[in-house]
Amino acid sequence: MRWPSLLLSVLVGVCLLLASAPRAAALPANFVGLHFSDYADYTSPAQWDVIQRSGADRYRANISKPIKDPGSWQPYDSLFEHAAARGISIVPVLYGWQGGSGFYPGKAEYSAWQSWVIEVVQRYGQNGSFWVNKANPLPPDAWEVWNEPNLAENNPGGTNVQPQNYANFLQATSDAIKAVQPSAKVLFGGLFSAATNQKPNGEYSSMNVRTFLEAAHAVPGTSQAFTALSLHPYAFKGDQVASVKSNIEFARSALSSVPGGNVKGIWITELGWPILGDENHPGVLEQTQATLLTNSFNMIKNIADANGIQTVIWYFFRDTGLAWNKTDGLRRLDGTYRPSWWAFQDQTGAGPWPWYTDNLGGTFQSDPGISSWGANRLDVFARGKNTSKLFHKYWDWNTGGWLGWEDMGGALTSGVDAVSWGPGRIDVVARTTDSSVQHWYWMNGWYSDNLGGAIEYEPGISSWGANRLDVFVRDWAAKLAHKWWHWPSSSWIGWENMGGNLTSGVDAVSWGPNRIDVVARTTNNSVQHWYWTGSSWASDNLGGNITSKPAISSRGPNRLDVFARGIDNALWHKWWNGSAWSEWQNLGGVLTSGPSAVSWNSNRIDVVALTTGDSVQHWYWAHP
Questions:
Q1: Which of 71, 283, 339, 378 is the most buried (most CB within 10 A)?
Q2: Neighbour tally for 124: CB within 10 Å
Q3: Architecture of domain 356-622
Q4: pLDDT of 8
Q5: Which of 107-111, 285-289, 405-409, 507-511 shows the lowest mean pLDDT across its residues?
Q6: Confidence label for 2 from pLDDT (cuts 50, 70 and 90)
Q7: Which of 456, 380, 465, 386 is nearest to 417 (CA)?
Q8: How far apart are CA 528 and CA 13, in angstroms?
Q9: Is 505 helix (H, G, I), strand (E, B) or coil?
Q10: Percent of the chain, pLDDT > 70?
Q11: Helices 163-180 and 209-216 sit at what angle, rounded to 10 degrees?
Q12: On the CB side of 66, how many CA atoms lie within 13 Å of its CA?
């Protein structure tokens, strides 16, 4: 990827199984990585914790230090310190020169450049001074020399590709590295999957991998100067995964054709797709990005042995701006997680994020409900144990504490469900004494109405946007019934009979307009799942062995999380990652009711259920 303006950028390395399994449990080390491109994040422990959660064990970082200021090692000390503390090995990219003219130094400046490289390796390399008395030394075993030298902007003056000059520069740098660390791997600077473009004067603005390698190897000694080829096999149009494969195989053929190249490996040190694109680098939808990640990584695993692929690194960790080469992140600019983050974790086999729990008190019966109208806002509802009234408690983000419980009256004969379509709006439903659906709504004050129906168990409610509500119940025939608020006519429509054979109440969620997902327990104690695709209803079964109404939440398009009480009375969790359902995960606890769940963004899930003592237990899952 072309990133001369991102001189201080980072790539994270993680493992990947050389097989086609969607989640890898036992992975060979140092195979997959992430690009981490914000200079300030070198020193951020919180960001390093996130990297570690991705499954990272390598981290590719630019080392760009002006000769005129040789004593300034920060933030590189923090970079190596944080990485080593988490068992992550740095792959330094020696990229960026401010000691003379041009992007990388000319021959007259080689001596100064080599002196600086020696200084860097003596500090951070094997047996380096930085590691003295460190409890967790983890010096790099590989050093990459420059970035994309087959593009004109990464050559002296930024006007012309100069493979022979790069070959001389590579040899000088390799000599300096190995003078200090003889066992080090040296990587031929990442070649971009570019076509050869010749200018009218015979110079080149870009050069394909084969032409560049052949021209560089015309300089005696080039073959001995590097261990492996660093490659950026980007493909932005057509069948991108097939094109990435073709670019890799082209590079393998080119490398094998030069002296000594047949025994050298390939490190794919950049690969990714932007969300915001331009004419030459079209953007993709977020879910498409996740699919491309999964499919390209699986393809690379399948061809790794045949092509000598030793590492593949995703470009990159999180967005840094609003341009085609700044929106390839697994995390958005605001830090929230794209579907591609979960796809990446599936590839690495990274363990689940931890769950936290606290108790909200109270004395209740039946299933509680929870909703959120935005970040740092939670509203919990429950049916009183002795009075059967509706009670309400909420998280006040201004004070960082829970307020409540508030007595809202009513006469409930079931648990509660709740939803919010936006700030300042909450809708709550429960069964009342005549077995109909009672509906409360907050709109600068609490109001209520009755939706009718003849139901068993608690109803479920969802909303896909302002002025849209969908209510689902189990009727007396054990069928799923549906009623919705039709805002153009300001009226309720239904009940619609959707069939099925339910043995519990219902829960529902929407991840966006024209999408609804509904869950309930069915006759064999498994979770039945219905979903509205925008034009029709479909259903499938999610398995499980549950003893309650299940709950469902969504933290973004094409992401679902399902919760239920198991036969062991623990909280169980199953999730849809955008392409497949996980197995059921045991989150522990002792439940005396079914759960309810909500998410206020892709970084957060909150779950409530009754526990021993009839109080409300609260689980929450939060990313930094």
A1: 339
A2: 24
A3: 6 Propeller (2.120)
A4: 30
A5: 107-111
A6: very low
A7: 380
A8: 39
A9: strand
A10: 90
A11: 70
A12: 6
Strands 585-588 and 571-576: antiparallel
Domain ranges of the chain: 10-348, 356-622
Q: What is the reported pLDDT for 398? A: 80
CA angle 312–85–604, rounded 5-degree value: 70
Contact 451, 483 (CB under 8 A): yes
Contact by Cβ (8 Å): 177, 120: no
Q: What is the CATH number of domain 10-348?
A: 3.20.20.80
Please tell me the distance from the alpha carbon of residue 537 to that of residue 483, in angstroms, as a whole number.
Answer: 14
Say if strands 527-532 and 197-198 run parallel, antiparallel, or are unpaired: unpaired
Do 518 and 504 contact (CB within 8 A), yes or no? no
Task: Name the residue type at position 281.
Answer: H
Name every residue whose Cβ is closer than 8 Å to that of residue 524 and which is 6 or more positions away in sequence: none
Give me the helices (H) in 263-334, please. Answer: 286-307
Q: Residue 209: pLDDT above 90?
A: yes
What are the tens digits of pLDDT across the range 14-62? 333 222 223 333 334 455 555 555 666 678 888 888 888 888 788 888 8
Q: Where are the beta strands (DSSP E) in 64-159?
A: 89-94, 142-147
Among the listed residues 302, 305, 294, the one whose alpha carbon sits nearest the alpha carbon of residue 271? 294
Confidence class for position 351, pLDDT limits 50, 70, 90: confident
Sequence-separated (6 or more) residues with CB below 8 Å from residue 131: 124, 137, 139
Summarize pLDDT for 297-348 with one digit per residue, the tens: 999 999 999 999 998 889 888 888 999 888 999 888 888 888 888 888 888 8
Provide the residue count of the chain: 624
**What residues contact residue 471 under an 8 Å CB cut-off, 6+ apart?**
429, 437, 439, 451, 459, 460, 461, 482, 483, 484, 494
In order of 386, 416, 454, 485, 521, the CA distances from 437 in angstroms are: 21, 10, 8, 14, 20
